[in-house]
Amino acid sequence: MILPLSFFSRSPVLPEFRIAEREFVNLHIPPRLLLPLKREAMTYMPEGEFPRRVQVGEVLARAQGFPLLAPLAGAADLHSDDVIRIRVSGALHAARIDTQPQFENMQAFLDFCDAHGLFYLDESPVPLSSAIRRAIGGAKSGKLRAFVVSEADAELPLYWKSVFAGMGVERLHLEDLLRGLFPGVHIFRTQTVSDRTDFFHARLLQPAVLIKKALRSKELRSPQSWLEDGVVYLAPPVVHGLIRALFHGEPFTHRPVVFRDFLRRKDTVALLPNGSVPADVFADRLPADGWEAPGQRNESADFLASFSIAIERHAAFYRFRSMKGQIPCTGCRACNDICPVDARPLSLIFDQRRFDRRSCFQCGLCELVCEANIPLSSMIGGLK
């Protein structure tokens, strides 16, 4: 989809798909969920007879005393030796969404685009060499106003950089673009699926974090480009996908999670919306079950809309670890994924001996993306 220039005009009427105007929706849940029984060093053994109908929170399997609970009601059967399949019927409903207008942030985005002549770009990729040729043609005709690049522009020959500069074409770095796209936004999420584990993971992205993530992406080895309405946009596809997801109003999902208190050996199942943090569930639901609600809350959830929709083919089950004075770690691995030196900061929670202290230079990115607000920087500083 290519948005016209009128989309970026300072009109008081906002398009229907703007985040601030999203409303409650009903969406169907997936026809089946696949629950892997082999998880890292732990193998779950099925419990009870299969096939059978199960309810939410019913024990399906156990491993070393830890139960695997059904996230949704349905008909459960052993799909294979290491997978339990639940065929589900019914529908999930949007449980929480921010309906407060965020015109200040959105207007800042429009102002940024107006100032730099930026437009929403066609998602169809073209080869880099073709993009350069088309860009040169646009510059000669006076139609090219900006050339947006990531730090991967080092791959762009110096000759072409000088050509653009000589034609008065402004070259904007991706980081500058993103800071204009997300002013004042503390958190941004996208979804990825790991085929190895069949888990559904949420990724937390901020402008600075997104840059670090993009620079480490293998996709940068073969850059994708877009040229439309006088702007060439050079960045890995993941970045374009994030922008498209945000401004198309594509839904974010809930993920089923298993909360565990290791002291009382007590489990409960809850739906944790992407766009919120464990503290929201603890504060709103778990105190009634005798749980102690942490005092921290993540204000970033107030900006992003959270939906409840189908988690296609995948479900996530995270075992929460109770820590005094802290929100439990969700095991989302965002800290590990963002670490620029692969020091394995997640090991600070589960096994500090695996943390690579010598490689860590305490950049603070792991703490920045931690959805549980765990003070990882302080934990690193306290290591001997």
Question: Can you describe what's shown?
Answer:
The protein has 384 residues and is α+β, with helices and mostly antiparallel strands. Among the domains are: 5-23 and 99-247, no CATH class; 30-89, no CATH class. The protein is 24% helix and 25% strand. The protein is built from 11 helices and 21 strands.
Summarize the amount of helix as a percent range: 10-25%
Largest sheet: 4 strands, antiparallel
Calculate the mean pLDDT score and round it: 49
Record field, number of beta strands: 21
Give the CA-CA distance, first to last residue. Answer: 54 Å
Q: What class would the helix/strand composition place it in?
A: alpha+beta
Topology:
Blueprint: E1 26-28, E2 32-36, E3 38-39, E4 42-43, E5 45-46, E6 52-54, E7 59-63, E8 66-69, E9 74-80, E10 83-87, E11 91-93, H1 103-116, H2 128-140, E12 146-149, H3 158-166, E13 170-173, H4 174-181, E14 188-194, E15 199-205, H5 207-215, E16 224-228, E17 231-235, H6 237-247, E18 254-261, E19 266-273, H7 278-284, E20 321-323, E21 326-329, H8 334-338, H9 347-350, H10 365-369, H11 376-381
Parallel strand pairs: 12-13, 12-17
Antiparallel strand pairs: 1-11, 2-10, 3-4, 5-7, 6-9, 7-8, 9-10, 14-15, 16-17, 18-19, 20-21
Organism: Leptonema illini
Domain 4Fe-4S ferredoxin-type: 320-349
Keywords: Iron, Iron-sulfur, Metal-binding
Keywords:
4-stranded mixed β-sheet, 4-stranded antiparallel β-sheet, 384 residues, alpha+beta, flat, 24% helix
